[in-house]
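Q: What structure does this chain adopt?
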Amino acid sequence: MGKGLLLCLLLVAAALFAWYQGMRLPDAWNPWAVLDVRLPPNLLTPYKLSRLDDDPQRCAQALATSELRYRPQADSPAQAPCPLQNVLRVEGSSVRLSSSFLASCPLAVAYALFERHALQPAAQRAFSQAVVQVDHLGSFACRNVYNRKNARLSQHASANALDIAGFRLADGQRINLLNDWKGEGAKARFLREVHAGACDSFNTVLGPEYNAAHRNHFHLDMGLWQICR
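A:
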């Protein structure tokens, strides 16, 4: 059992004890409260995100605390090679997207958390300006991991993963992982801070130092494993 999961279970147990004692927990530390995107991620965030997957009402309540623009999508047929249920098409927020993308509810809400609490603060610290566009390589793709015939299904196959390739700043500057990850300049430092911050919102974060397949993007997903590489 990972340390993060153990701490989360201990917090839930502590919350249960507090509830039995008649104490009122702040929503940020109440495991039964709807996740509020306006509040910074904490140790309960993975648990709260996991509760959104099969609960459209709770999902809508969480998204209402964000700036995301999105449209619910119809479920795909059960016989589809990679059936999708309870997915959204994320169209943007105050930040443009290079294109809209399909997302499970946990992925969409995690993206909103990342944008608010990791991406924009990092841009302000590094460049004293906002990110105005996120350039991505897509989310949904009905395939196995690394397209290997005998591998398990990728998180992309359930619209539970997003690959981000770069960012555009308010003054027109472009930041690209393939070209700007290496080095000690402001763009490289910004990308490393964004990578670290993403680990507070997504379950799995893989970047250019993970392997050659990720040299040009951050892979962000809401799978079972807590990985920050």
